[in-house]
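Co-fold these.
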Amino acid sequence: MDLLAQYVMNGVMLGLMYALVALGFTLFFGVLDVVQFAHGDVVTAGAFAGLATYAGLVLAGVESAVPQLVLVVIAATLSMAVLGAVLGRVLVLPLKGAPPLNVLLATLMGGTALRECIRLFYPGGSQPQRFPALLPSASWSMGHFTLRLDNVLMIVAGGVLVLGLSLVLRRTRLGLEIRAVAQDEETARTMGIDFRRVVLLTFAIGSALAAFAGVMHGLYYNEINFGSGLLLGVIGFSAAVLGGLGSFGGAVLGGFLFAGLQTLGAVALPFASAYKDVFAFTVVILLMTWKPTGLIGEQLGERV
Amino acid sequence: MRTASAGTRAISALALAAVAGLLLYGFLATESEKTVGLILLAAVVAVAGGLRSGVLPRLVHAAGAGPVLGALGLSMLALIITFHDDPFVLLLMARALLVLVACLGLHVQLADAGVPNFAGAAFFGVGGYTAAVLGRSDLPHLLILLASGAVAAAVGSLLLLPLLRTRGHYAALITIAFGLLFRTFLEVNDTLGGPQGLKLGGLRILGWSFNDDRQLLGMDFSGYAFYCLAAVVLALFAVALVRRVERSWIGVALDAVRLDETAAACFGISIGRWKIAAFTLGNALIGVAGGLSAMMVGFIAPNNFTFQESLVLVSILLLGGLGNLAGLAVAALLVIWLPEKLQPIQEFRYLLFSVLVVLVLVLRPAGLVRRTARRPFGSVAW
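Predicted complex below.
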């Protein structure tokens, strides 16, 4: 029982991370009907931006953990928001109207460029980098189950972020504009909505979420690697597709579903736990064969 | 349409092949980066001038595709003989040719039928691992090469149902997921050597081991010369096959399926059947190339078949101009050779290619070379 609780806890942690990445994919797809595949690498870039900020703070003599953490998160999210908007402006908007595969390829290559830049130009970037433990490390043990304070804090913060995004989308003027563009770009334009502004803001928001997920990833594993964005991106995209691209709830559901599959693959199945990704991706392919447009199908008018 | 005499055809084809061969020779022979640049410049000038003045298309047209292919094969043969004792150059040539074959497979899938495949390197790997596993048995090696293709096609058929039920992004995701899945599978599977990979014996046909150096015509040929020859034969076969397919009614059906599924279905073209055919044929080509490549290198590991490598294959397709076989060949040579010849860019090659592809996609969305429309009769459409 306590072992089960431990797995659930880990699954929730991973699921939240995946959901944050998947939300980006779903937001972009909502406003522009494109898949921005550099998103996974934005996650890594966010983590590295956080790490660089930390190094800078240590150099500047900021020693206590709270300001460090706050500044790391702020620097990572803000810089990735800018980067996301730039990517949207340079890679995605010019390709509006091109075949979907071109956009996919352009952003895949953009992601590769980003990944290579981290590997080549971040000091020691080709090696895995240690990520500092900025959260309090208190923990409570109950049998096999260890409840770690840092995990709880991250889950709460991530959950608040997801709820906050949902509120922004449903309650604010910007959210209304985003939903309007997602529903019908032409009509939204005739209603006086600045299309480019909405698209770029959406890219900024999605990428900021990715940066947050990247910092979470670093804090959770205590290590970041220039190449991990690729897998995270594919997982996030799979999660968004599983839920149904363009659906807010679907992305969150898909994120947790994928984490659940991975945990199941690692724990409950007869073969070695190393096969957990093989299992998870196999199930993703099977699910997509069964429901080609996602579990919560893409429905007009209900996109983000 | 007036057909040229046999003599004109042969001369035109040989002239083309001679120019191409000279450029390749210069490129391969030089050690200095400056000369590489000059030769590239010369090549660009030659091709651009040939296209602008209409000489190049006229030569190709006068010769006909078959003689041009034959003559190019001859010039490759001449290059092999020239570099007979330089294993490095021979290995480079063979690698580029095998990558070209793999790209031809992708070409059938993506450029002809419009089925995305972002797992090219994975299918290349399937071929390689098949060759490695079957190589332990006593099966004749030619049969093993065929089996590499067959197994790659069979593994690909696992993806058929998902691919037929999805399209666009979703289909792309399925192949991406498969590519990652395949690599993870290789890394954790101990029977296939895990992350360390497997060793292979060399290709042996009728008791003749390709790995051994041997004397022919008074020259010491490096073993790689024979692999290179095999790669030339395979590449010529693949190009001829793909061209035949494209110029036949199969090609018309594939075009229709790619351009407009609804319209194709209205004309009674079975979308599923042609997508299956293209995907399977493509994977078989990739698999055979992978098998031969593994035998040549003598060693395979999961790290050779990353998603990054799949992306390189797709980039070659795109840089060559989607749907353009001549461009495809040039792009394959450049993408494989340039980083080897220009050492300073070796480290930056992925960055360079990715930025190049992005630039092409953003600045020239229709492709680097505009795709020519099909002219059913009397044309030589490359």
